[in-house]
Specification:
Shape: elongated
Number of strands: 6
Strand content: 15-25%
Distance between the termini: 61 Å
Helix content: 10-25%
Strand order of the largest sheet: 3-4-5-6
Length: about 280
């Protein structure tokens, strides 16, 4: 049985549901068990606030709720039921990789690396990298609708009318990179990283990095899409006819965490050597 939960507090909250609100765009399909469009449940703490905006469509209502709530608790980052956790964030001065304000993410700020916690107390301990990444919320106007300029031709990477990928049902404000295939519409340039590592006698590996996204169904009527990269490794080994291919998705938050750790707590990784046998 799916646990009812407050649309503001989130699925993991212990606050019991006190009631539901039918907003102006409420619509229920006969015979369909899923949560109706334009309806959301709330705990006692947030029910009165939701009732205040029941005359509005649900997206507009949640935008008003976000304004009225304290900074410590805002509406969910995807659809009703996805909780957010807010904690103090390091300033740009305390984090060399942080050049902009901390964006909103559904899983809260990053915790220090467990590897970093093993650094001796008498060693210099750098700040942990904040692994959160900007989010285009499902309610309100969203964010990231306008594509950045191409570093070659200086025109927009994608036009505002380009198709935006919607891999999940429900309300969404897909950003410019939704469905982007690494090509620039204006000049046709493609940005990808290809690393070829030749070894010996036809044995080699090729790693290709391209932009990608990964959708996750997080509840019966909600979801979340992570932006990131797809890393494809093709290995050719001696004595085999067919190459072996492996593919891995890494979110931008994970890449940021890794890049920062390699310059701080995981810098020792950069001291490794390859070695040969004969």
């Amino acid at each position: 049985m799916i646990k009812p939960h407050c649309a503001v507090c989130g699925f993991n909250s212990r606050n019991p549901v006190a009631g539901g609100v039918k907003f102006a765009d409420y619509h229920a399909e006969p015979g369909v068990l899923a949560t109706p469009n334009g309806w959301a449940a709330f705990c006692r703490q947030h029910l009165e606030l939701a009732e205040k905006y029941r005359h509005l469509p649900i997206r507009d209502a949640f935008e008003h709720i976000a304004t009225d709530l304290p900074d410590q608790r805002r509406p969910p980052s995807s659809a009703p039921g996805n909780a957010e956790r807010y904690e103090p964030v390091a300033t740009a001065d305390s984090n060399p990789l942080k050049t902009r304000p901390a964006p909103t993410m559904p899983y809260g700020p990053a915790n220090p690396s467990t590897v970093e916690q093993t650094v001796p107390s008498d060693a210099e301990r750098p700040d942990a990298v904040d692994a959160r990444w900007p989010v285009s919320q499902w309610y309100g106007a969203g964010a990231g609708a306008t594509a950045p300029p191409c570093p070659r031709c200086r025109r927009a990477v994608r036009t505002d009318t380009a198709d935006r990928d919607r891999p999940l049902p429900g309300y969404a404000n897909p950003p410019w990179n939704a469905g982007w295939d690494e090509r620039f519409e204006a000049c046709g340039a493609a940005f990808e990283l290809v690393v070829h590592t030749p070894l010996h006698f036809g044995v080699d590996r090729t790693t290709t990095v391209r932009p990608a996204s990964r959708p996750y169904q997080t509840f019966i009527d909600e979801g979340f899409v992570l932006s990131g990269v797809e890393v494809t490794v093709v290995e050719r080994e001696w004595g085999t006819d067919l190459p072996r291919t492996q593919t891995l998705f890494l979110s931008m938050a994970e890449l940021t965490q890794l890049a920062g750790a390699l310059q701080n707590s995981l810098r020792i990784y950069l001291e490794q050597f390859d070695w040969a046998h004969d």
